[in-house]
Amino acid sequence: MSGRACVALALAVVAASGLPPLRAWLEADMARHMLLQFPLLLLAGGLLASALPARLRRCIDACNVHGLSGLFLFLLVSGFWMVPRALDEALLSVWVELAKFGSLLGAGAALQCSWRAAAPIVQAFFLGNWAWMSAAVGLLYQDVTVRLCNVYLLDQQLVAGRGLVVLALVLPLIWVGTLARSGYLGNFLSDDAAVAGRDRPPSCPAEPARPARASRGFQAPGPTDAQRPS
Amino acid sequence: MSVLRTAVALVLVAALGITTFAGMTDGFRAVTSEAARRLAVAARPAVVPDVRLAGADGTIRPLHAALASDRRVALVDFIYTRCDTICSVLGNEFQQLQREIVAQGLQDRVRLITISFDPAHDDPATLALYAIRMKANPALWQFATVADTRELMPLLASFGIVVIPDEMGGFVHNAAIHAITPDGRLARIHGLGEFRQALYEAAGLAPTGEG
Known about the structure:
Shape of chain B: elongated
Strand content of chain B: 15-25%
Order of helices and strands of chain B: HHEEEHEHEHEHEEEEH
Number of helices of chain A: 12
Largest interface: A-B, 31 and 31 residues
Distance between the termini of chain A: 28 Å
Oligomer: heterodimer
Number of strands of chain B: 10
Largest sheet of chain A: none
């Protein structure tokens, strides 16, 4: 997709989830608010970031070795919007709502700028942390018998909690699946790779870029960056 | 160079994160609006609006006058009489409070007021029936609703009570025990299950009579 198309699509998503009729519908239910509007905004942020000018992108990359800063920002933003009071305030205060849109767009952009730069071990660390956090919050939402948000009903809280737990299980599984398909996991986890790759080296030759990046990720970060011109 | 910049960026993100989390949670003390409201109320008791209350006894009185003339600290809860979920839990706690007030001899320092947020249905006659159902002692426990429905929202807002109509024609609402001092200030909020603590603190807030 061209840069302009990305920006147009992102703006369309932001407008759709931010303008009154759809926004009211999205935010009327806790599960829709957290599990539909948030991902839409993250997606829009990612689209915007993919259209960033190369110069700006290089500046960002220079402060984002292995995607660490961006992934950390994403982790904090997504954790923040799991705080029940933050959800309440987003509906009660225009400023908090604006901050929510801004921070989720930013987090989506940060993820887009960071994910590919992160070696699988870094991805595993952040995805693991994110999944652990989401699952804990999701279980908490289901465990407490009182409403955590003043603006949402208890059964919505249960649905949102279940959704968070499902996401915390499904996203890491998808990630492991992609790693297996790219051959990163060699013939440990993937049966296909074990059968097809018996005569091959552990890394899948079909995608030379991935294993090269993957092996770099396991080195100590110091020498890697010393080698890389910045 | 990139590593250093990344380290600086990480520190900045962490600092921003800590500041924002602390701001939203009142310094990591409250993750829910309810908890934050309780902290704010205990720190700065605010005057509640002087609405006119229609009592179960048929009288209409301004809230502040009713509080000032009584001189006891009032423990207030908000219900609607058709509710058979959280309101019956609250009703049960208030029945226990009524027993405890007598048991601890606090009749001249603490009293109970139950306010209905459903004035369309809960007229004085309905409230009187509800009082009988609750086995309320009229000297200790009064029932009322707002005389003017336009005054309901400001009253609920000042107590931090959010009422959402549910699908079955009833309401979903938060429940708490609110301590109001005779000068019309909301001084404490306690959650369900904390009625002993609520009574203990209310007794402490009450004017002693001697001084």
